[in-house]
Amino acid sequence: MAEGNTSSKWRFNPGALAAIPASVFLFIGFAGPLAMVVGYSFMPAKTFSLLQIPTLENYVSVVTDSYYLSFFWSLLLASISVFLLFIICYPMAYGMAKLFGKWANLITALIVLPLLISENIRLFGWVLILLKNGILDGTLKYLFDITASGLLFTVPAIVLGIVYVYLPFMLFPLVIGISMVPESLKEAASDLGASRWQIFKEVEIPLSMPGIMIGGILTFILALGSLAESKILGGQAVIMIADDIESSFTFAQNWPKGSVLSVMLIALSGIIVFILFRKIDLDQIIGRR
Amino acid sequence: MNEKRKRQLTKNLIALWSIFVIGFLYVPMIAVVLASFSKQRYFQFPISSWTLRWYEKASTSLSIRDLLWTSVSVALLVTLFSIILAFFGSLAFARYEWKGRKLYQRLILLPIFFPQAVLGLALLLWFSSIGIIPSWQTAVFAHMVWIVPIVTLIMSIQVYSFDPALEEAAFDLGATRLQVLREITLPILSPGIVSGGLFAFLLSWGNFPLSMFTTGADQTVPEWLYSKMVSGYTPMVPTLGSFTMGSAASVLIIIYLSWMVFRHKSFKLNQSSANKEE
Q1: What residues 110-169 of chain B have any CB closer than 8 A to a CB of chain A?
Q2: Please, are residues B174 and A3 in contact by the beta-carbon 8 Å criterion?
Q3: Do A128 and B145 touch (CB under 8 A)?
Q4: Which CATH number applies to B61-277?
Q5: pLDDT tens string A14-47
Q6: Which residues of A are less than 8 Å from B219 in CB distance?
Q7: Phi, psi of B50 (to 5 degrees)
Q8: Angle at A8 between CA A6 and CA A12, to 5 degrees
Q9: What is the pTM assigned to this prediction?
Q10: How confident is the model at residue A284 (pLDDT cuts 50, 70, 90)?
Q11: What was the ipTM of the complex prediction?
Q12: Which domains, ranges and CATH numbers included, belong to chain A?
């Protein structure tokens, strides 16, 4: 009886107990810093303390200055990248979910491995490829006597970098999404006389939508906040929003301005994630219960 | 028949495309390795003469030794702490039904979706306003903010496949909470713990955006590489880059092999004890 009591006491709410360590840590390490950024965004420009009279001047100056340009570039490049990623990843994800069988595990491993290598090393590899006298230019010169020297430090190079770095984050959600489509439904549709295109449009796309949504929104947000791609591959071709945030905090030493830009980026991403999370059930996707 | 052939063609095309995409992922890394063996001070392709000189130089450099030491220390501590936090975190995520679980699942994953550069800057702000001078120790904390959620997610996948009836059976047989944890929960979840730890180590080892703002005067390898990249070409960048890739691959292989050996052994042990009982 005593045994039973202690164990039922333990079982009272072990989930909430187990949630405490990580929650407390993220409260200090994530919620705290975010609250501070929000706080600084209301402080007078170029100040380094939170103990001043709150003001909206930073928000006003960000809206009236040319910062909308870097927001525009970030949104544009992120949209283009997500579109390309979807086109590139969908056939491959379909293969991994439905066609490749046991090969899918090997492919998964091959896609995960580069994630464990620092992204600036991998982007540097693209610098070596696109550089004047680099691998692409050098090979073309050597073989066909054509030059391809102006490739680095351009907008397409940034898009290439974003697509390259975030490819797995589109691919894996798509694989999960597509594998959630039951084969029997497709067969049923086919038996009822649907064409392959109809099956694709009416059955596969709608049923794999959770995966498509996660992949699309995840890569969009990551691309929106990307910094290394535009710095390493883009040179000064365009300034993206993360560049502006970084230089406000570092060179300009204007914490409040950097905070305002951060708050706007966070709000934008946050709204998108919020909409996403309302529509999907994580248990179903991760655990497939 | 025609339909079947069409299907086969689609399959082959998709397979070809997938191989192409994988090639796309690996080409830049191969480029870095190639460049590290090039003798010239400025990279030119085709490579005319090859050398191991840059590796020799790197291996004797004291400043590079410092960088490696900093990176390894950060990654090891991040791994240790992340495993502990994520172990309990994943139990709350996937094992137990409790009131706030749905909300918790969403909140705990938020840092993964967050732009890392902005997170790094926010943490820098946070550290300096509570009076902590950034150093490699603060970078450990910063990496964990991003890595704990990822490890929690990886471990949760293992926890989902874990049958709670096993724990309950042990309780019914009179095991204490600690015994259940040691004899049932930990062994069953160990694959998730190993892969989670591996991810923690390698993601921390390769992290740049968080380190950039939170290491203060200390420097990790990816930071050093970045600072050299933007200030012009030096052969040390591909050399140290190749070295970090090689060491990440070695860690992966060593852990994988020892895991296989360990599993093989414990399998044998279980079998022999089962035989004895018979």
Answers
A1: 110-111, 113-119, 121-126, 129, 141-142, 144-145, 148-149, 152-153, 156-157, 160
A2: yes
A3: no
A4: 1.10.3720.10
A5: 888 888 899 999 999 999 999 999 998 898 887 7
A6: none
A7: -110, 155
A8: 115
A9: 0.84
A10: low
A11: 0.83
A12: 66-287 (1.10.3720.10)
